[in-house]
């Protein structure tokens, strides 16, 4: 029975690296995979999954109005061979409807879906895609990284252009190490409450 998996963490935990490794394992055995990434995440180029350690692969970019079930159903029956697994990077950018579409891919087409993404934003609020995945995924997997103090990092701080902690702003602002730092809850709270 295929399942919908959600692997979540803060920034810099290695989610994209894990996705690329898992995808490689399937492909190395001659199995077909489909990789998806949010279209507005262009850090490695539009339609490109990239990791901080230099790994990368092409992926299908998705937008908020895309029908992912329809896309995967068409690809699965396109004559190129059955799809063994779907991989979704930056899954926090899915909308609730798209998460349900991915659940239907697992339930009705029988293809496992492995989604990787952030749980919360820089203000400690759930992303819509993450909220839906936490609610309906068959299996949840926390990918761990650490705070500078050695505790498990569960929160992320956004830095402005001057390297100062941003406390307000849009939920979605794409960036990497120059913009986001992961912290344990205690140190995140210290930084976010500081005046």
From TrEMBL:
<keyword id="KW-0547">Nucleotide-binding</keyword>
<protein>
    <recommendedName>
        <fullName>Thymidine kinase</fullName>
        <ecNumber>2.7.1.21</ecNumber>
    </recommendedName>
</protein>
<feature type="active site" description="Proton acceptor">
    <location>
        <position position="90"/>
    </location>
</feature>
<dbReference type="Pfam" id="PF00265">
    <property type="entry name" value="TK"/>
</dbReference>
<feature type="binding site">
    <location>
        <position position="147"/>
    </location>
    <ligand>
        <name>Zn(2+)</name>
    </ligand>
</feature>
<comment type="subunit">
    <text>Homotetramer.</text>
</comment>
<feature type="binding site">
    <location>
        <position position="184"/>
    </location>
    <ligand>
        <name>Zn(2+)</name>
    </ligand>
</feature>
<dbReference type="GO" id="GO:0004797">
    <property type="term" value="F:thymidine kinase activity"/>
</dbReference>
<dbReference type="InterPro" id="IPR020633">
    <property type="entry name" value="Thymidine_kinase_CS"/>
</dbReference>
<keyword id="KW-0418">Kinase</keyword>
<comment type="similarity">
    <text>Belongs to the thymidine kinase family.</text>
</comment>
<keyword id="KW-0237">DNA synthesis</keyword>
<keyword id="KW-0963">Cytoplasm</keyword>
<keyword id="KW-0479">Metal-binding</keyword>
<feature type="binding site">
    <location>
        <position position="187"/>
    </location>
    <ligand>
        <name>Zn(2+)</name>
    </ligand>
</feature>
<dbReference type="InterPro" id="IPR001267">
    <property type="entry name" value="Thymidine_kinase"/>
</dbReference>
<dbReference type="InterPro" id="IPR027417">
    <property type="entry name" value="P-loop_NTPase"/>
</dbReference>
<feature type="binding site">
    <location>
        <begin position="9"/>
        <end position="16"/>
    </location>
    <ligand>
        <name>ATP</name>
    </ligand>
</feature>
<keyword id="KW-0067">ATP-binding</keyword>
<keyword id="KW-0808">Transferase</keyword>
<keyword id="KW-0862">Zinc</keyword>
<feature type="binding site">
    <location>
        <begin position="89"/>
        <end position="92"/>
    </location>
    <ligand>
        <name>ATP</name>
    </ligand>
</feature>
<feature type="binding site">
    <location>
        <position position="149"/>
    </location>
    <ligand>
        <name>Zn(2+)</name>
    </ligand>
</feature>
């Amino acid at each position: 029975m295929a399942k919908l998996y959600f692997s979540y963490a803060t920034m810099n935990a290695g989610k994209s690296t894990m996705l690329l490794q898992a995808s490689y394992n399937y492909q190395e055995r001659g199995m077909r995979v489909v990789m998806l990434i949010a279209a507005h995440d262009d850090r490695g180029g539009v339609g490109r999954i990239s990791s901080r350690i230099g790994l990368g692969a092409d992926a299908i970019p998705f937008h908020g109005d895309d029908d992912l079930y329809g896309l995967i159903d068409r690809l699965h029956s396109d004559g190129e061979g059955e799809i063994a697994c779907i991989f979704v990077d930056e899954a926090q950018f899915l909308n609730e409807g798209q998460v349900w579409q991915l659940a239907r891919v697992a339930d009705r087409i029988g293809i496992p879906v492995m989604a990787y993404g952030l749980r919360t934003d820089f203000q400690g609020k759930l992303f819509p895609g993450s909220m839906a995945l936490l609610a309906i995924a068959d299996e949840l997997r926390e990918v761990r990284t650490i705070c500078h103090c050695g505790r498990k990092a569960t929160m992320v701080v956004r830095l402005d252009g001057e390297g100062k902690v941003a406390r307000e702003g849009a939920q979605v602002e794409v960036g990497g190490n120059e913009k986001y730092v992961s912290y344990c809850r205690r140190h995140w709270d210290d930084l976010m409450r500081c005046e």
